[in-house]
Structure formats: C-alpha cells, structure tokens
Write a structure and sequence with these properties.
It comes from Jannaschia rubra. Keywords: Oxidoreductase. Pfam families: ADH_N, ADH_zinc_N. By secondary structure, this protein is an alpha/beta fold. The protein has two domains: 168 residues, Medium-chain alcohol dehydrogenases, catalytic domain (Quinone Oxidoreductase, Chain A, domain 1, Alpha-Beta Complex); 126 residues, NAD(P)-binding Rossmann-like Domain (Rossmann fold, 3-Layer(aba) Sandwich), CATH 3.40.50. It has ten helices and 18 strands. The strands form four sheets. Strands 3, 5, 6, 9, 10, 17 and 18 form a seven-stranded mixed sheet that branches. It is globular and about 55 Å long. 48% of the residues are buried.
Length: 326
C-alpha cells in the first residue's frame, strides 16, 4: 500500500509500506478520509516521544471494510483500542485503560495510508447519507464532546462557555456545548482567517478574551498562555476543562482557582460511549453541516503539514484523501 510516513522531524515521505494484517476479531479498512490532528503536528515536529520515526501517523479516519461479514460497510474508526477487562474499562472509562493502544502510536500504524486494521468494536457504521469525510470528524469532535460532558457534571446549569482555540478540537467543543444545552458560547482564536471561518459557522469568535467570566472554560490549546487565560476567565465556582497538549508546564493561577473554588479537569480523548454519541450527533445533524474541511490528496500530505505549521490554512481541519478514492 501507499502511505505517508513520518521519517524524522518535519520530514514526511509518501511511499510504499507493508499492508496491515488484521488480527483475530479485526477487519481491514480501506481508508477514504483521514484528518490531521494537533498531535500529528507535534509528532511531525519531533515533540512526541510516544511517536518515534519511522511511523505512519493519523488517527482521525473513516473508510470501507474489505472482506468478512461486514464487507463493504462504511465506517468511522474509533482509534483507541482498550483491553475491555480492566477496572477502567469495566467502569466505562476505557480511555483510561492502562493497556490502551491507539493507531499512530507503536505498535499500531496510523491511518495516513490506504489501509488500516481495526477491531470490530471500534468500527461504527455510517449511514449512506453521511459522507465519509464528515464521518472522519467523529474522533476530534468526540474529544470536545467528552470534555463538555465532564464539565457539565461539575456545573450542570452552565449557560455561558469560553473555548480557547479555533482548531478542530475547539470547534468541536463549541458545537458540543451547543448540542448539550449551553447556549452562549464564545471562541478565542488569534488567527484572522480561522475567525472568519468560525463566524461563517455562526460562532462568536474573538481575537482575545474580554473581561467576561464563564461557567465553563475549555482549553483546546494547552499552552501556558492559554491556561493563564482559562484561569482568569472562569467564574467563581466554574470549571476549566483542559484538552490541549501544547506544553506541560505553567500558566494556571492556582491562588485564584483555590480562592474562587474553580475546578480543573484534565480530559483525555473520549470513552467508547462518547465516541458513539458523537457519531450519532453527526448523523442526526446536531453538530451542524461540518463543512469547514480542507480536502487534500494524501500524496500531498507533507505540503499540508507545512501549510498548517505556517498558519496558511484558515479551515479548522485538513483531511487527507488517498489517491483513487472518490
């Protein structure tokens, strides 16, 4: 098969790679769409020791099953493979499984390729009226869905929310807030092109926060500066849901958070139920038209990574399409 392979920092090569071999209970999936995630960018820049080169990146994907009893079924892929038997899995928190694996991290290759092998339970059927490019957004949107669900457990009556970051995770969080009943949502995004895209979607987008305080603040960036913004903008008794993994130190105003009883939640990926719920919300149209995608050929993936790095992509999400897929 052909694949986009990460060979060294800021180096991707489109070349032949071994076809994946499905294990017991797994299906071979022909990839039709695979999104570029922030974690793919971190790996490409050499900032993620969990993703050593050479490696096929990509974990936001959808495609068509080839062979077996589900042959020809259109599916979106939950890339997180849990053991199913540990205490975390038994509690429905499979995202915290100590034995979890995710495609795009060894030993599992990723989805910037023509084929991937996945367990049956990780493949969610996609209705015929939903495009596979939209279905590939399930994974990044599920991250926001999970964070919003956890934040609303802390502040059930949340009415106002701030999302820091207008990339796919931030956009997904904003859409999930609206879908889960939070009516007043503001997104902070410094990139003017992205702000224009957000505003065209009907979202309120600012270059920087004003003096308002919010029931829920979602940090979809994860830098010291964004954490400083989050801890300044949460109202007393509010909650910060932290998704971003930009850098691991600094930013939080712990004194203010302590004096104002502001909760801080680290939120990692999603549970299998969150993934299913997000997929259903996409299928039902509750997350909008999802027309903010920049489609590019997988063979030109290296150029797409560079464009994202340079801030030249106004769309929240770039999705790569393998050659020959229609």
């Amino acid at each position: 098969m052909k694949a986009l392979i990460y060979d060294a920092p800021e180096t991707l090569d489109f070349r032949s790679a071994p076809d994946p071999e499905p294990g017991p209970g797994e299906h071979l999936v022909r990839i039709h769409a695979a999104g570029i995630c922030g974690s793919d960018m971190h790996a490409w820049m050499g900032h993620d020791a969990r993703r050593p080169a050479p490696l096929i990146l990509g974990h936001e994907a959808a495609g068509v099953i080839a062979g077996g009893p589900r042959d020809g079924e259109r599916v979106t892929i939950n890339p997180l493979v849990a053991c199913g038997t540990c205490a975390a899995c038994a509690a429905g928190r499979d995202n915290l499984c100590g034995a979890r694996q995710i495609i795009s991290m060894p030993p599992r290759q990723g989805a910037f390729a023509e084929w991937v092998a996945m367990p049956d339970a990780n493949l969610i059927a996609v209705p015929g009226d939903v495009t596979l490019t939209r279905a590939a957004l399930t994974e990044p949107l599920a991250c926001g869905w999970h964070a919003v669900r956890l934040a609303r457990q802390v502040v059930p009556d949340a009415a106002r929310a701030l999302v820091i970051g207008g990339g796919a995770i931030g956009v997904g969080s904003a859409l999930a807030l609206a879908a889960q009943g939070v009516g007043d949502v503001t997104v902070v995004e410094p990139n003017a092109g992205r702000r224009a895209t957000l505003e065209a979607m009907g979202l309120r987008a600012l270059a920087a926060p004003d003096d308002s305080l919010f029931d829920v603040v979602i940090d979809a960036v994860g830098l010291a500066a964004s954490r400083a913004t989050a801890s300044a903008c949460a109202r007393p008794g509010g909650v910060i849901a932290h998704i971003g993994l930009g850098e691991d130190r600094g930013g939080l105003d712990v004194r203010r958070m302590t004096l104002q009883e502001i909760a801080f939640l680290g939120t990692y990926t999603y549970t299998a139920q969150d993934f299913r719920d997000t997929a259903q919300a996409i299928f039902d149209g509750r997350l909008g038209p999802l027309d903010w995608i920049d489609l590019r050929p997988l063979s030109e993936g290296a150029e797409a990574f560079r464009a994202i790095r340079m801030g030249d992509v106004p769309h929240p999400k770039v999705v790569l399409i393998p050659d020959g897929v229609t």
